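Forum > Structural Biology > Help requests

Title: Can anyone predict the 3D structure of Sodium channel regulatory subunit beta-1?

Hi all, first post here. I have the sequence for Sodium channel regulatory subunit beta-1 but no way to get a structure on my laptop. I'd be grateful if someone could post the structure tokens.
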Amino acid sequence: MMSDLPRAASKWQGRASCLVLSIHNHYYGETDVFQEQQPGSLALTRAMGGPAPPEPAVPAVSSAWGGCVEVDSETEAVYGMTFKILCISCKRRSETNAETFTEWTFRQKGTEEFVKILRYENEVLQLEEDERFEGRVVWNGSRGTKDLQDLSIFITNVTYNHSGDYECHVYRLLFFENYEHNTSVVKKIHLEVVDKANRDMASIVSEIMMYVLIVVLTIWLVAEMVYCYKKIAAATEAAAQENASEYLAITSESKENCTGVQVAE
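Reply #1:
Sure, ran it for you. Structure tokens for Sodium channel regulatory subunit beta-1 below:
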């Protein structure tokens, strides 16, 4: 009975090894044939023509959607310079497929009607015949896609005739699983043309705050230096007085000792 225990243990160990390797083959596509040669031992024979084990799996990288932020356009252009008029219209859900086209209209300062100056659709810029914008308008929005979200334009060599109100009309067709939906948005920009660029109020305020902060910090630093100097001077004077008191005490004690010695003699 005792002699059969090692053999039984070896047999169960072999079956356990067979089970582990079978699970391994199930996930890695290997076909292995096990043959028992003698009690307590196993021999592994790979079947010819079995599929090769696959390469280690590389975790897939999920695609990322670019963010879209709607920013207001600048409203002051300098005469003779190039100016960019921003028109950004973001989708509420970036993963929704869409097709977009835009039309720009312009109402010159002192007039009442808007006139169309361009249309951009299917990556084609169609300019209207207008002497004020002839050879001056350049597309600066989204490229390589029908799903436009940046619909900005450049105006080169700006003149006073470009002062006025601009409207960026955005027409978007959204594709859902069972239906399509049309949306339209109008972005309005008022443009003024000036001879010289005026400083932004934010930059003026920030510069003033910078100088005020420098003055305050300088005054605080000088006050700290004066305070530290007075404190050090007071500590030095107190130490000098304490040393002088100790010296006088030692001198008087020495004189008393000398007097006592003379009296004793």
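The first strand starts at residue 32 and ends at 38. The CA atoms of residues 118 and 154 lie 12 Å apart.
Shout if anything looks off.
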